Amino acid sequence: MEGPRESPNAQVVLRYGICSIAVGAKDVLTAFQKEIEDKNLNNVRIKTTGCIGLCSMEPLVDVHVEGLPNVTYHHVTPEMARGIVFHHIQNRTIINEWVIPNV
């Protein structure tokens, strides 16, 4: 019988500049915070940082999960944030369709 899953060591970094906030980053941040809290993922940290100049692709989110490559997701919505938590962080499956390569 499989026991409860241990929370993965992960970090979510949301670009939180004016351009990102203007297109919904605040709702994305709230979605990540709620999803991580609801799922009791104690080893997942959320940070915010400034713009990297890819304003047309905001909101951008970097996800670092221990043992996986670091990736950046673009045009992230609250629904996508919930998908990133479920697929990438909890089930260790990168959602390649949403990733910007080489950022």
From TrEMBL:
Output the InterPro entries linked to this UniProt entry: Thioredoxin-like_sf
Q: Quote the CDD domains the UniProt record gives.
A: TRX_Fd_family
Provide the species name: Biomaibacter acetigenes
* Record-linked Gene3D superfamilies: Glutaredoxin
UniProt-recorded name of the protein? (2Fe-2S) ferredoxin domain-containing protein
